[in-house]
């Protein structure tokens, strides 16, 4: 097989894998975020937001990785309570993004914990896009 053909098959596989990660709940949320003025959700921008440090607590800047860790296929641990947080990656935890109400609940709580404010619709869409790619 020619290299171009191999590349096209690989690109198609990646597209299917990414699309397979979406759920009716995430589709609903993307539509909601668009209705709130967000658009063009981008996984790379979501990754930057995921790593962005915000609020300082106990002398340490918080980011999403503070509790969720760097490997999203592994469980994390809440920085204060020590409670185990199941893996964020849908590839490791297929139930992760199947309930829109839960997703919104956790965005509200975690954005306030990490950044000291609620996330915008654009930030939530971008981060969700990033997480669905895992």
Automatic annotation (TrEMBL):
The keyword Plastid does not apply. Residues 41-134 form the Cytochrome c domain. Residues 42-61 have a biased composition (Basic and acidic residues). One of its GO terms (molecular function) is electron transfer activity. It comes from the Bacteria. Residues 1-22 form the signal peptide. SUPFAM superfamilies: Cytochrome c. Keywords: Heme, Iron, Metal-binding, Signal. Residues 39-79 are annotated as: Disordered. Pfam families: DUF1924 (PF09086). This is Cytochrome c-type protein SHP. Transmembrane segments: none annotated. InterPro entries: Cyt_c-like_dom (IPR009056), Cyt_c-like_dom_sf (IPR036909), DUF1924_SHP (IPR015170).
């Amino acid at each position: 097989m020619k290299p171009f053909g191999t590349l096209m098959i690989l690109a198609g596989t990646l597209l299917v894998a990414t699309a397979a990660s979406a759920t009716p709940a995430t589709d609903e949320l993307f539509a909601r975020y668009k209705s709130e003025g967000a658009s063009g959700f981008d996984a790379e921008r979501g990754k930057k937001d995921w790593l962005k440090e915000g609020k300082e607590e106990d002398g340490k800047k918080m980011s999403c990785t503070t509790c969720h860790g760097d490997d999203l296929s592994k469980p994390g641990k809440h920085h204060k309570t020590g409670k185990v947080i199941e893996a964020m990656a849908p590839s490791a935890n297929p139930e992760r993004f199947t309930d829109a109400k839960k997703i919104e609940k956790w965005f509200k709580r975690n954005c306030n914990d990490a950044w000291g404010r609620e996330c915008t619709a654009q930030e939530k869409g971008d981060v969700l896009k990033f997480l669905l790619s895992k």
